[in-house]
Every structure is written in structure tokens, then in C-alpha cells.
Amino acid sequence: MPGKSLTIPLDKPSVLADWRAAIVQAEEFDDGKDAEAFVQFYENFLKANPTFPTDYADLAEEYDDLYSRSLWLALPYLNEKTGYAVFEQ
After folding, report:
1. Cα separation of 49 and 73, whole Å?
2. Which long-range contacts (CB under 8 A, 24 or more apart) does 39-46 make?
3. Digit-coded pLDDT (tens) for 52-80
4. CA distances from 69 to 26, 40, 76 (A)
5. What is the pTM of this model?
6. Of 4, 63, 74, 80, which is least surrounded by CB within 10 A?
7. Helix H segments across the chain?
């Protein structure tokens, strides 16, 4: 992995494990509000770290999976434009 500094250490295995556990729990309890929190967090993270998907391709793939799963759970809490984009994807 590159030595590029991230605004939040999403490259640490413990951080990924914590996010995985949180999303699994949100899925188990159909917790769209917690899922929306991850959606907002990850979108903001990508704005602050635009090269993350290329610099950390393997990790980005895993976070993108969590993001996709979270989008479906968070659907009732998303604005209309974002909600439509979920269905288009």
C-alpha cells in the first residue's frame, strides 16, 4: 500500500473490521439510520481522499461493498435524488 496519508485511517485492519461489524449489525436489525451514518461518512471520506479508490484499490473494493449494502438499508433516510441513484446503480 502507498504511504499516502489519509484523513481517517481506513487502511488499518481494525477500522475495517469495526465497520464490517457495524454494517452486519445494521443489516441484522434493519437499522437504516446507522447505515445512513456510514453512507454519509464514506461519501465525505472520499471527498477528502479522492485518490483512495486508486491508491488503496483492495480496501476501496471492500469499503465500496459496505457502502452499497448501507445504501439499501439507508434508502428511507436518503434524499429523493440519492434514492433514485441507488435504483439506477
Report:
1. 25
2. 39/67, 39/70, 39/71, 39/74, 39/78, 42/66, 42/67, 42/70, 45/7, 45/8, 45/10
3. 999 999 999 999 999 999 988 887 766 56
4. 10, 13, 14
5. 0.82
6. 80
7. 13-28, 32-48, 52-55, 57-74, 80-88
Q: Are 66 and 21 in contact (CB under 8 A)?
A: no
For 13-40, the pLDDT digits (tens) are 999 999 999 999 999 998 888 999 999 9
Using pLDDT thresholds of 50, 70 and 90, give the confidence band for residue 84.
Answer: very low
Contact 16, 54 (CB under 8 A): no
